[in-house]
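Example 5.3 — Response regulator
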Amino acid sequence: MITVAVVDDDRMLLDGLGSWFGGVSSLRLTASVATVDELLAVMPEPVDVVLLDLVLKDGSRPVDNIGRLRAAGCRVLVISSVPDRSRILSAVSAGAGGYLTKDNDLKTLVAAVEEIAASGTAHSPEMAFACAHDADPARPRLSPKELQVLVDYASGLTLKATARRAGISANTAKDYLDRVKAKYQQARRPAYTKTDLAARVREDGLGGF
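Solution (predicted structure tokens):
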């Protein structure tokens, strides 16, 4: 059972998510609140995944909210009305495990929550586009599959386990890793070993590390 909390000041959305999750046996919604302060005040222990609205009416900064939730031991899935590229990159760099727009369906949302709860990254089209068009020369532009393989492998999975999770062969997974390494080396950032890759993932705030 994956425990989930929602931080959003849209009451209609909160009520709607409550109804949605009521029909999903693998998830349990434990709290629906308007601010991170409220959640931290009522949360006796960390929930597995927090659905966090990007912009809240209390004026709190998204990066600060993500940082506080990560420090409290929660993984974060950002939900937003708009696929703003700079905000997506800031959220990922701050430690969010994914970014979804609010027009996604229940199946997509549940899959993203399950992936993040399993220490993965929710690879939405919005997040993939932002990463592919990142203008920071120090952060290589990775395809969605390259990003998935990098994060899973750097998290400690074997190459075979990484390949199985991505639905590809071990040889294909190795090809993706080789491309990732080459891109980081072109950016003059060491990426020769698994330890190097894990360090690059942490530095770039990928996958909630």
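Remark. The chain has two domains: 2-130, 144-208.
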